[in-house]
Amino acid sequence: MKFILYIILIFLSCNAWSQSIDYTIPSEYKNQISQKDYRYIINNSIDVLNELAKVSSIENGEIRLVSLDQGENTIFYIDHVLEKCIDLPKTTWKKIIQTHFESYFAGLEFHKTLDINNFDLIKPYLSIRIYEENFVTDYSDNNWITQKNLEGTTSVLMMDLNTSFTTITRDVFEIWNRSEKELFAIAQQNINQKQKFKHTENFDFRGHNITVNFIQNESLGASMVLDLENNAPEFIGELGTIVAIPNKGFVILSRIMRKNPLEFMLFIQAHIEFVEKAYQQHPQRISPDFFWYYQGKFTQVQINFNKGEIEILAPMELSDLISKQKK
């Protein structure tokens, strides 16, 4: 009887810690990496993570961990590792994978050392990340501090721990006794101080000279557009600016000027496929849409496809401004 019980206990123990590993390449990467290389990345990720926690399962690029202090079923996405590895020599991948995950856990350990009750200590780490609205709905359980800036997206109050980001939950928010408006303002000020790369390009499209502007920062490029007046006032046109934010890393913009107010339609036509690709192929995508920025407000530009033709409908307020220019 004892022998049978011993076997059952061993079986249950092994079953509890068994790993379910799916080596199917996520659809968006099927044309970018071979099955052999994907398996190599997965196996090396498992080796590193099992030293830090315990891999429960991997399916469609989603890694689930157990036995973390932060709770069971913590989720990682292999997309971040793939993005770092794909364009670099395979000889560097093992080190990239190790650094990636160790940096994340270092951020968690640093988080533990912070006195969450000391707002003055926490203040410099406040930040904002923009996510797809559906992502926040699925994962926040209404426990995150959020605000709406662009249709179809949600801006989330975060802590930037240098090697990783973590959300601010309602219970922590209530400790500080500060308004959401104040916290988001502080977070935006912190973002504005981060290094950014801005550049402008000119190109010909259907006989028209189009000017395109970019704001880039690997982690916070998208968040910088929330305060365009301070981060890139030179990219704001007389009638506003058309903005696309396909993923967290960069923003593409086109000024609307009085001398040629309809040029924004050519800009959208020229970049609609580029923005869609930048959205679909990034692990932290935000929106495939275009927005009109004017006086601190973002309004979605309606785009319809009809028999292969692109129909662009300007927001009503922008249409009124353009009409006034013609009089």
Q: What does it look like?
A:
By secondary structure, this protein is of the alpha+beta class. It is built from twelve helices and 16 strands. The protein has helices at 2-16, 35-52, 79-85, 93-113, 119-122, 133-139, 170-176, 180-192, 221-224, 228-231, 263-280, 316-326; strands at 20-21, 54-59, 62-66, 74-77, 126-132, 146-147, 153-160, 165-167, 197-205, 208-216, 241-247, 250-255, 290-294, 297-300, 302-306, 309-313. A hairpin with a 7-residue loop joins β3 and β4. α2 runs parallel beside α4 (93-113).
Order of helices and strands: HEHEEEHHHEHEEEHHEEHHEEHEEEEH
**Helices and strands: which structural class?**
alpha+beta
Number of strands: 16
Radius of gyration (CA) equals 23 Å
Sheet with most strands: 6 strands, antiparallel
Shape: globular
Q: Gist?
A:
The chain has helices spanning 2-16, 35-52, 79-85, 93-113, 119-122, 133-139, 170-176, 180-192, 221-224, 228-231, 263-280, 316-326, and strands at residues 20-21, 54-59, 62-66, 74-77, 126-132, 146-147, 153-160, 165-167, 197-205, 208-216, 241-247, 250-255, 290-294, 297-300, 302-306, 309-313. It is α+β, with helices and mostly antiparallel strands. Strand 7 and strand 8 form a beta hairpin.
Name some characteristics of this structure.
single chain, 327 residues, 6-stranded antiparallel sheet, 4-stranded mixed sheet, disordered N terminus
Please specify the SSE layout and strand pairing:
Elements: H1 2-16, E1 20-21, H2 35-52, E2 54-59, E3 62-66, E4 74-77, H3 79-85, H4 93-113, H5 119-122, E5 126-132, H6 133-139, E6 146-147, E7 153-160, E8 165-167, H7 170-176, H8 180-192, E9 197-205, E10 208-216, H9 221-224, H10 228-231, E11 241-247, E12 250-255, H11 263-280, E13 290-294, E14 297-300, E15 302-306, E16 309-313, H12 316-326
Parallel strand pairs: 1-2
Antiparallel strand pairs: 2-3, 3-4, 5-7, 6-7, 7-8, 9-10, 10-12, 11-12, 11-13, 13-14, 15-16
Helix pairs in contact: 2-4
